[in-house]
Amino acid sequence: MTLLAVERIKLLTTRSPWWCAVIALALTVGFAGLIAASLPSGESLSVANTQAGHQFGIAVIMVLAALAVTTEYRFGTIRTTFQAVPKRGSVLVAKATIVALLSFVIGEIGAFASWGLGYAIRPSDETALSSSADWIHVAGVGLVFAFAAVIAVAVGTLIRHSAGALSLLLIYVLAVENLVQLIPTVGPKIHEWLPFTVAERFLGSSSGGPGAADAALSQWGSLAYFAGVAVVLLAIAIGVAKKRDA
């Protein structure tokens, strides 16, 4: 509990997490409002439409999570932390836990605010949370944000440099997984198992999203897979951190 408290204080007493949180919420909610306001009168706004901006929020959350690690390496405070707590794995797990919890809260606030704004703009459309699929579309965003944050903490630990970690994360999240589909023959098969593609399947497969019918994993299986990728990457990062100088 002491480690968790220390990591919470370190995270929340700096400006970057607050700025990232504001930007993530602004992008997520703003995009939902833009979609709801711009839909033609003949088209209906769905619950899934209100969550279309969450992908931009994920990118910002991963920036927040990576900076939580790389900033410590940049200013050398990670050395003091590792001297005070020789068990580096415990430090990184505590950091990942705090960042994931904050990301979960931001994701839930953004998701429900997006849904609420869409409902306020188009109250006559099919935006009521009337099924389990609708609830997962909204409430599941926080879970995806949390595990995405763990992945970013792992990448930040492995690379240690802010520019490198952020470049890799943003390029991968915003471009690489989609570009993989362009590889002849094997591209679509590889794309089906890429982590953020699987995470999107968790959010939307039960309502007939793309690839839902022939998905290799069930909806909750998709979440478990995404969580597994996050845990494995964190374990690799901890193993590397133990073997090299801070």
TrEMBL record:
Keyword Mitochondrion among UniProt keywords: no
Name listed for the protein in its UniProt record: ABC transporter permease
Originating organism: Amycolatopsis rubida
UniProt feature coiled coil, ranges: none
Transmembrane segments: 18-40, 52-71, 92-115, 135-159, 166-186, 223-241
Keywords: Membrane, Transmembrane, Transmembrane helix
